Structures are given as structure tokens and as C-alpha cells.
Fold:
Amino acid sequence: MNLKGNYMKNDEKIIESIFSELFDDNLPRYQNSLTSPMDNNDDVYAKARKALSKLDEKDKTAIFNFFKVVISDTSSTIFGTIDGSHFPPNIDGDFTLTYEDEEIQGSLQDLFIEKAENKGIFN
Structure:
């Protein structure tokens, strides 16, 4: 069921699940990893932790809020490509995406952007 108490269509269900995974699971994991104490590693996370450690909390928050925009824009590009409303170079065919024997492409990008806007990600 969605927030309005209605049963979700499959496309809404897919977007709800992916959105939750990205913003409720993955993003906090990145934030925790990047704000954990620095170590002597030289991997990409350690380098990012070192860079973030030089920022005050306000600037760190700005960076993490920008991560939300990057995640949203990237996801929107993928969903738009599947929907047929975005055309990356060298991809000019049509996609058919099904879930539980139901075609779900066509409004994935719009549903995702609506969720992102409702969550205030682009503000």
C-alpha cells in the first residue's frame, strides 16, 4: 500500500523499493563510512574521509545533500532510458521491462522524480 492507503501498481512498487534502497539504506551507509575515523588506508573511501574531515558540519551536510542530487539524477537517467524518454548516445531502440508479467516502463522516471521532489532532494 502507498501512503494514501491505496494498493500500489507494480511500477510504483518498484520505484518505492529502489528509492528506499538508495536513500534509506545506501546513502546512510556511505555517510557512516565517510564520517568514520580516518585510518592509514589509501583507498577511495579513505581519501574521501580525509577530504571531508577538513570540512565543518555545515559543509559536510551540503556535500551529502549533493550526493542525493547525484543519486537522483543518475537514477532518473536510467529510468528515463528504460521509459523511452531519455536517449543516451548509441541507444535508440525500445525497452520492454516487466515485473510479475506486467510491463512497467513508461512512467518510472516520473515516479522517481516525484518521490525525490516530495522528499525535498532538489532544494
